[in-house]
Amino acid sequence: MSVVQLGNFLSFSDSSSRDILLDACFKFRESQSLPQEIAEELRQYSHLSIVELNELLIYNAISDEQKIKELLTGCPPQLVKEFSKHMSVKVAQWLDYTIESQLSIPKFRGLEWKTNLKADCNSSISDSFVPTAMVNLQVENPIDSSKTDVIEFEMEKDTLNDILQGLGQIREQLQAIAQQQK
């Protein structure tokens, strides 16, 4: 690795060395076990450790080069320029990776339904039937994304009305958020 001391901060003179630094930033973004020399060099110029800087960038989705530069006041300008340029790209990639690899929220794949008549057990008339819907939701298997899991449930008209009302509220909230971002 070709490393040149620039003040007290490590400056990597070739792209493969910068990639090594960026990979180290990603690998150690949640731990305190970052290689000591990188952590010490960063601390000399910044009030943030590399772990804190990564957490700040990723948690707040800061991928704008100018905002990253503002976090590194006091560092040599050339280093700030290179670091912010590369981190702006990497933060966006890491955010995409994080979103794609979430295990807690399965991705929606499809919806199928059929209507049916179900005998009403509560009715005193034996010929009384209640319309129902059998719904099959297809979601991505969280372990193997090439497979689809099916969630089956039955609902009556009242339940469907509640779901439609809730979906309408979700749509309104998403529209309000989209309008705020414009």
TrEMBL record:
UniProt name for this protein: COMM domain-containing protein
PROSITE patterns, sorted: COMM
Domain COMM: 107-178
Pfam families assigned to the protein according to its UniProt record, in alphabetical order: COMM_domain
InterPro entries: COMM, COMMD9
